[in-house]
Amino acid sequence: MIARMSRVGLLAAAVILACACVRVFAQPAASGRDLQGTWTNGTITPLQRPEALAGKAYLTEAEVEAFERTWLDTFRKNFSEFDLTAPDLDYTYMDRQRVVPTRRTSLVTDPPDGRVPPLLPAARARADARPKPSLDDPEALGLAERCLMETSFGASTSAPPLVPSPFGQNFYQIVQTPTAVMIHSELVHHARVIRIGGTHLPARITSWLGDSVGRWDGDTLVVDTTNFDDHTRFGGSGPRLHVVERFRRSGPTTLDYSFTVDDPDTWARPWSAEVPFRATTAPILEYACHEGNHSMEHMLRGARAEEKAAGR
User: Which of 215, 219, 123 is nearest to 178 (CA)?
Assistant: First the structure.
């Protein structure tokens, strides 16, 4: 494991170094194939169509205005009264995000109902068998709580597919050379390297971000990712998770991004979604979550104090 992480880390470091030197050493991208820049895919359009909007694929302009105005209050209903005491559940810290330009009611485009297919019984059983979050062991807590990967509300801002986080900070820098494309995500400062051409690594070699191999189909970069580690668990997925992404520069400030997810051990059928990216002048900021994750220590200390008070 350590050796594998070292190899991946060295490759990521090499591509990040290329970021500083890309104007000097990288060959000019072919027409339409330049994906480089700083981008955001932040949106409050949900991955799945809300049940209240069943049968409605698009919002009207008036409905968009109302949706954006009331979204935060609706979002806060997902949290307990205790959670709402946290200071980061309002626009003091959260980004003000908007509905996607098409006014779709979901990012999911297939199935037509805008919903991710239900989990198969085997997938539910697999999820039930996994260790439950516990303050007895920090490694039993979620990846987001441990500042290792953003996975809140089914989002993944690092591992494919790239689903926006409702909390914000959905910022990316893309750097490319003739043989690789690097996607650097602000959360949690991961550098994902996509090899252009070639084949996948042996199935026994896995990683949290999967193994991504890309190819150009005209002006579209098609990325095939497999070999996910069990830690990823996107939407309850299993080891046979297979994601195909498509990136296309559709204009000077727009990037079309779509993906198809397939996992025969988790969903009865593949499903697809579209997430528009737009260029931004906002810088990629340091996300020093782990270094400042005092809450983790405080939660564990609090649990031990409660046990002591209870005489356990």
Answer: 215
- Neighbour-count burial of 153, counting CB atoms closer than 10 A to its CB (0-12 exposed, 13-18 middle, 19+ buried): middle
Contact yes or no for 134/140 (Cβ under 8 A): yes
Domain of residue 217: give its range. 2-309
Q: Judge whether 255 and 276 are in contact, CB under 8 Å.
A: yes
pTM of the model: 0.84
In the beta sheet, which residues pair with residue 161?
none
Give the pair of three-digit tokens for residue 153.
């509300």
Domain count, the chain: 1
150 DSSP 8-state letter: -
The pLDDT tens digits for 151-161 are 777 677 889 99
Q: Rounded distance, CA 118 to CA 131, Å? A: 22
Burial of 251 (0-12, 13-18, 19+ CB in 10 A): exposed
Amino acid at 300: L
Query: Which residue bears the tokens 């990967």?
Result: 149
Q: What is the pLDDT of residues 285-304, one digit of tens each?
A: 888 887 778 888 888 889 89
pLDDT digits (tens, 9 = 90+) for 98-128: 999 999 999 999 999 999 999 999 999 988 8
- Are the C-beta atoms of 135 and 80 separated by less than 8 Å? no
